[in-house]
Amino acid sequence: MLKDKPVIAPHECVDCPIRHRAVCARCDVNELEELEAIKYYRSYEAGQTVIWSGDRMDFVGTVVSGIGTLTQTMEDGRTQMVGLLLPSDFVGRPGRDGSAYDVVATTDLVMCCFRKRPFEQMMERTPHLSQRLLEMTLDELDAAREWMLVLGRKTAREKIASLLSIVARRDASLKLGVPDGPLVFDLPLTREAMADYLGLTLETVSRQISALKRDGVIHLEGKRHVTIPDFTRLMEEAGDDSDGGMLV
Amino acid sequence: MLKDKPVIAPHECVDCPIRHRAVCARCDVNELEELEAIKYYRSYEAGQTVIWSGDRMDFVGTVVSGIGTLTQTMEDGRTQMVGLLLPSDFVGRPGRDGSAYDVVATTDLVMCCFRKRPFEQMMERTPHLSQRLLEMTLDELDAAREWMLVLGRKTAREKIASLLSIVARRDASLKLGVPDGPLVFDLPLTREAMADYLGLTLETVSRQISALKRDGVIHLEGKRHVTIPDFTRLMEEAGDDSDGGMLV
DNA sequence: CGAGAGCCTTGATGCAGATCAAACGCGCGA
DNA sequence: TCGCGCGTTTGATCTGCATCAAGGCTCTCG
């Protein structure tokens, strides 16, 4: 299918909606040009709500920079974060009209958007587009279900370790580096946001982070800058058996 | 696309892999015949494991009868159910080799299977197949994320009410009836299975069911036969705002 | 430089649900 | 028919996390 056409290298294809973690070998030039025609950028300030649950969504897109969250809220104010949006993550529900959750910009956020209707029309003509989206959605489903285990069965300490290991992994894969030594990254969430992700209170989050620091599992400079001297140790703390690798 | 072809009524299409809750207007005869060629049935006994997490899966399929669960287990034995498989539910991960979770038959289970490789080849030729699968996967993702709210933020009583309302809804939609009066159905899960779904212990499940019974929210005959006199009341107990309807 | 606002940490106390333990009820096979 | 086993119920106690409360750190703005 790519025969006779120049292949676009991943880094030339930052905005591609079916890019996933910087892998996008399947794009060909025609599609990119077609996508270009329906593409635009939007930016949001920290704290701004990108879409309210139930609102009509007229675009799909990918996060270019910044951090966003998908959250659900009960009338009495209890909230649960159901997804974390990091650069390269896809946002949107092709074939669906409204959003199912609030999408909130946690930091300043830039999105590369594609008008939804023409995008869906492209999907009908381009089987590998919907297949790729299916794969991405299956990945999200796996992640959501893995998180169900975290929420349902893990202790507070294990929850924190699980979150740290996920963020560390995502951060490392974005840097495209295979870090041999300690992992270093900035935690993009407040204690409250972490609590909402983990089904805890912010006080418990704070206490458990202090405990992990005290026990040498992590080091902290300031409140955000994390270094993980031994990733295997962190995985053990998270209660994960397989090393999970840095592969994904 | 359906022009000039006889449309298959839902009830004639019980095994269709892209059937979803008995709606399958998009099938046309050619595809059904092609599917027929790669179709076979399998049955499993209660308690039998259909697929182990990580195992190679060489089919996709739909549940024809019986109840199954998707579960994840930690080395120390803690388990979390991440999905419930009721008749008409799709099982499988087109484009993926292995299963991400254990699939367990909770009751005797009959599946209508399709060989995976030819099915995937069909997907490449048939855009609406992968689009339909994408829609179904988005539905599963929504359900998983809704369950994250249940696991992370609801009390034990709310969790039980949430589970009952989901099973009641699914049961009603399978019967194709729009029940005006009280809902009556059989609970297809043991207390332990419910506990694994809800992130609780079986003792807590038992106590909360007793409490809901005592408060008149539900009635029980034996341990399994449930009647719900007032569905709205149950929804309130579940902490759900919108009535949610019987629509899905 | 000081005041205030956010965000975070830490301490004291309370409670929902886990854990440990015992007994019930029902179906089934001898 | 009895006795056994499995799933369930119920009680007593324990504990991890929530809740309530008080400061601390750091950045910004006057």
From TrEMBL, chains A, B:
| Pfam hit, one | cNMP_binding
Q: Does the keyword Secreted apply?
A: no
SUPFAM superfamilies (UniProt xref):
cAMP-binding domain-like (SSF51206), Winged helix' DNA-binding domain (SSF46785)
* Every HTH crp-type domain range: 154-232
Q: Name one GO molecular function term.
A: DNA-binding transcription factor activity
Superkingdom of the source? Bacteria
Give the CC-aspect GO terms: cytosol
Could you tell me which residue ranges the Cyclic nucleotide-binding domain spans?
23-140
Give the UniProt keywords, A-Z.
Answer: DNA-binding, Transcription, Transcription regulation
Q: Which InterPro entries match?
A: cNMP-bd_dom, cNMP-bd_dom_sf, Env_Response_Regulators, HTH_CRP, RmlC-like_jellyroll, Tscrpt_reg_HTH_Crp-type_CS, WH-like_DNA-bd_sf, WH_DNA-bd_sf
Entry-linked NCBIfam families = TransRegFnrLRhodb
Q: What is this protein called?
A: Crp/Fnr family transcriptional regulator
Its source organism is Marimonas arenosa
